[in-house]
Predict the 3D structure of the following.
Amino acid sequence: MLLVLIVTGVVFLSQNAPAMLRSAIENAVNKKVVVRSIVYHFPGTFELTGFEIQENEPFAGETAFYADQILFDVSWWSVFRQKLILDRIAVENATIVLRKYRNRLLHSLSDAIQTSQAQASLSSAGASAQTDRTLLPLEIREFLIRNGRFRFEDYDVQQGGFVTAVDNIRAEIKNISVPFGTLRTAYAIEAQLLQGRGERPAPMSFSGWTEFGSKNTDAHWVLQGLSLPYFRPYYSQVTLAMIDNGYAFARAHLRIDQNNLTLNTDLEIVNLFFQSYEYDNQLFGLRAEEILSFLRDRSGRIKFQIIARWNIADKSVKARDVIRQSIERSLKNTVLGNVSNILENTLQKIGEGGFEKSKDDLRGTIKKFKDLLKY
């Protein structure tokens, strides 16, 4: 009798599991799901080809996520815990699209997150009203991406959307849960940032963890060879100067604790040339030519550290204002640190016999420094 029940269960699952999985995913993400084919492998593995999650309004029908092939390992605990539990997802040749529109981030899980937050608010307020749809909780224990692509379309910085594209993504993400709770999501991502025609992709990596319920985060980010002119829509948020050429190498540590964000970045810029400066030939409130001459080392590189802090829960605080102020403070501190090196070099020249010329150089340096500190 037990054998008959097992065989009957297997037959039932093999015939109905694909439709059940499609419905469960659609219910979990609250978006339309399209699947070319689903093959079920006993006991709980699904092989999906041509898998797509489509956006809702205002980008209805456009792709939020697409993959040539996905392997789902569904946990049997899903049956008993009334949630969709996926032990492992392995994705090949995926395209992930993130859109920023009217200060809202739209992606494959955005509607699920918004609905779960609304449900949590109603529950915490003791309200009896219900949202239009109660979503099936989703838990993903391991999410692997190979040969992935990512597109960030920002409609808030440029009309029609400014596109940042990332290619050759290799990612390992663990412990994703919707609705959010105290679960820490760990991630390790490597990729190449595309920068338009004629520019080499910039290698990048991102690793750390985030507790999405509280937003607590501890993450590290490394970027090598970012072409500054291409990303003008973003740097123009903090300065009106126009960069003609320049590449940035950055190492950043991002920490969020109880909504208090600290961004600590070590920045190195090479081959920097400007097409134009800010008003009255200034750069971050300082005389442009003077500040650049003080910042550049002997090889022409500019190195400085930026530390920005703000409370992300305070909507009156603009991130771009905090970052600009942090850059201004960092530039002044870097200049003060470099002055001793400049004076030392001048004194060395005096010792080598070029007294008169070095004396004039020293006077000119001191004058520039005094003028700089007036701003």
User: Anything to note?
Assistant: The longest strand covers residues 84-101. DSSP finds seven helices and 15 strands in the chain. The two ends are 88 Å apart (CA to CA).
